[in-house]
């Protein structure tokens, strides 16, 4: 990219002068960032064109990865690393009196995702580019993303996240590739030459305009693309009559309604209008993406080569949000390309594959049939036919077929069940961790598995170790490279070569020194952002993830309340200082999660303001968790809290990011914790709690009684009472909804059942931390065994076993 530091400075200063029309010294830091980002983006776009030509010449099979979320994080430093230019640019900027890290902080975190689902998709894009897979991400360009979390008086509030307010230098608007999307209207059948045709009329047209973001693979040889679709009016117009009457809102009503489709990620769907908007959002993405795939295929292979489509194209749907890829691809093959049903269905089912990310009922999407009929009339007709044919093909000779059909049909009880549609229309269905896949096969989707078990497979998640270790933890990365060479950057499995250094005192001391430095950086951020002063020498016990009852932040909170109560009884209690760090967003309409956030802050105020205990324990909540904040937190953690109710977490990816950075897992046998346990071994992880089987048996037998546990454990009874007895203030400050969920409604996620074992295991972890040599060995063992959890491994498994990409 640059021949050296002087070459970079010459090119950069020339670009600044040409773009900003003023000297470098007069530019703001944001302007300097934007020019640098545009330089790198221009180089990436050129390489993307070369990549496309190379893949096209080689007739590479193309993978299209559909996801409602792509949580990219900042790109500047990441792409400089991938291009091998980070050191050169850093040195050149230093000569010019600038700092690369400060420039990088000018970049917003793109508001394109919420949590693990979106971050996984972004990691996959990174790894597909590194592995030279011809891949395109298909997503939506949300103007405001999810929301910006603010904490006011201990409560979560939501503000718009205007991440595009200053533009986004990494994107290229591709107007010529815009597509028209149809909503509403009616479908009329006509018969001609013995064939039924369908004409869609009286519909509303929305324009889908793509914004392309280059995805630079490590090594800088392959650049793929993330295509983000934005909803726009098909033409610039305004109702002048309404405007003249002073009805200004009415004059631009249609524009506003159209632009709302890609305004916000996951609009609240608790109202009919919200449901309609969210379904519009999902169809908008799938229809625009499928149309662009069909047009590109016809341009490359001609309009009659449909039989070979599954050999040349793979369409992957990341969870149920893009499930409409199935009927939409059918619609285009039937109505536009004039294929017969059986031929079109054969193509669809051989092309599309599906990843399921959850077993939680609320996350298995369903849409009212009436809404689907009204909004997507032709698509619904195709879904109805898919369901009819599925029912007709059902084997009714085997006992229990009625129950299996009722659980697997697409249309049932007035709902369109999107997971079932995805499974029926795909050739492969995968879970994202071994235990998760087993639950899908044996419980959630057992009717489908009974019918076709070969369709189901497991692909344990992975994360980009180049972002979450190489970029996020440069000091640790340098130490690793000094010991085993740089091969681990391309092949994370080589991290296992670190194992012999568990007996190297100097290496372990350096590892501890680096961890302390990372904790100091996080402590500085915490002081700056919240005013709370924490001790970097304390044990950093960290739980950062979406706030949800099954993820059991509540269990962690109860542990801290127990420590507080004990320290009040015995201020001289032998306890190494602990800092408990939380971060994560609660969904806007999820009141229990928002109350959990309020409880964390109430506890933090109680603990941090009490001089009798604050020298031993501190509680911190970091607001507005995202990729960049995560990259600061993961390298600083000592304990990684992965304490979801066993059998409820699909996989988790935070657990892997912590592991790459040497944190030790304290967790249940849930999600990918199972594989972490297998790899790290009993001596390098702290496991507690009910198993997934025991949780399921409790639910089946119905003999779990949370009140009995409180009666048996006085300390736990005290904690649950403190939720409502004035411990946190007056009655207006009580937490009755949380108390009732545990006591009155019998503790659905077994917080109280696991509390005693969790507490014992936590104290065992604390004792291990006191032995610094032992702890550092544990930390090193986790780093050495983390290589399995690279997304490189995961996407290669997808490529070979699902997409049939060599």
Automatic annotation (TrEMBL):
Function statement: Allosteric enzyme that catalyzes the rate-limiting step in glycogen catabolism, the phosphorolytic cleavage of glycogen to produce glucose-1-phosphate, and plays a central role in maintaining cellular and organismal glucose homeostasis.
Keywords from the named record: Carbohydrate metabolism, Glycosyltransferase, Pyridoxal phosphate, Transferase
Catalyses which reaction(s): [(1->4)-alpha-D-glucosyl](n) + phosphate = [(1->4)-alpha-D-glucosyl](n-1) + alpha-D-glucose 1-phosphate
Obligatory cofactor(s): pyridoxal 5'-phosphate
Class of this enzyme: transferase
Protein species of origin: Anaerovorax odorimutans
Protein name in UniProt: Alpha-1,4 glucan phosphorylase
Ribosomal protein is among the record's keywords: no
A Pfam family it matches: Phosphorylase
Known EC number: 2.4.1.1
Family as reported in the entry's similarity comment: Belongs to the glycogen phosphorylase family.
Phosphoprotein in keyword set: no
NCBIfam families tied to this protein: P_ylase
